[in-house]
Please model this.
Amino acid sequence: MIFRSRFYPFNKNDSKFKHIALIGIGCNVGNCIRRFKKLFLFFQSHPKIDIISTSYLYKNPPFGYLEQEDFINSVIVISTSFSPIELLNFLLYTEKKFNRVRTFKNAPRTLDLDIIMYDNIKLNKKRLILPHPYFKKRDSVLLPLYLLRK
Model:
């Protein structure tokens, strides 16, 4: 199911910073719509992030661990002055701020943030692989990304 809410979708034509990143967002615990709104406002208020666009929201079934609620997913395009590793650290901090608890792989979550792409960089480090190695296999990224272009 595809739907909209405040800030999803969102578009503007300019950007403040040099680097462009595509962030995948997901949630399946609690009020995900309200959490995505708060995430948008949190990103928007950060001095090193400028939101360029967001996609429609996409409700889809979980993968991996199937005994959980459906996910709400979207993608956010930002410009940033963070390096890729700094952005990763910021996203991990943000997940924690929004009460993400990592109990096991593919567990339910209050917020999941993934760097899908960062500029045209290819990176293969222990903590970060760019572009995201599985994004082409995930409808939770592909459909919002497709809708972003509409």
Observations:
- Residues 32-45 form the longest helix (14 residues).
